[in-house]
Amino acid sequence: MGKPKTERALADNEARAVTRMLRISPQKLNLVAALIRGKKVAAALADLTFSQKRIARDVKKTLESAIANAENNHQLDVDALVVKEAYVGKAMVIKRFSPRARGRVGAIQKPFSHLTIVVREVEESA
After folding, report:
1. How many CB atoms lie within 10 A of CB 113?
2. The domain 14-121: what is its CATH number?
3. pTM, full prediction
4. pLDDT per residue as tens digits for the range 8-60
5. Where are the transmembrane segments (predicted)?
6. Which of 5, 78, 79, 107 has the fewest CB within 10 Å, making it most exposed?
7. Other Cβ atoms within 10 Å of 48 Cβ, number
């Protein structure tokens, strides 16, 4: 006897990918996530490929993972996918200290983030 199967949180025409513990502040990561929200996946991948931000590589990997999940696990059409959601969550913060003048200490915070990308299949309207 096992526990009952939980219902799927997403709709049948959606798939998602989550990347946890990215070493960047949520504020900086959200700038790149905002770049792809609501776009078709081909345009979003092109934007991330030519972005100057360092974290764009990791966001692109997460988007490619969401596309692969949609294609392989949910049999969705890759050409009809749109980035429905791209949101950032706050993870842990590593705290470090740096010595300052007159015996004081300066706190250094090294934040981590979570990234979730949800893609949705939309039917083309003529």
Report:
1. 24
2. 3.90.470.10
3. 0.91
4. 899 999 999 999 999 999 999 999 999 999 999 999 999 999 999 999 999 99
5. none
6. 5
7. 22
